[in-house]
Amino acid sequence: MASSPGRELLAHDREQLDRVVRLVQSGRPGFLVITCPQALWPRALDYIHGQCPSGVERRVPPPEAPLSDDQLVDRLTSIQHSSQAVLSVGLTNPPISFWTALNWHREKLRRGGRVLLWLDSTADLQNFREHAPDAYSFRDAVLVIEGDGQPSYEPDTEDTPQIKSQRILFELPRTAVERAEAARDLAQTLYETGRFDEAIQIAQTGLDLVSSPDLTDTRARRARVRLYQELAESASASGRSVHTYRFCRWGLMELGDDLVTSFPDLNLWFEMMSGDAWPYHLGAKAASKVAHWPFSDGGEMPGVAHVFLGASAFQRGHFKAALDHFNEALHSPQSKVFYKSNLRSQRAQIQIRTGNLKAVAVELTEAEKAALRSQAQTSDFLFGKVRLFVARGELDAAERLYN
Question: Residue 116 belongs to what domain range?
Answer without folding.
Answer: 11-144
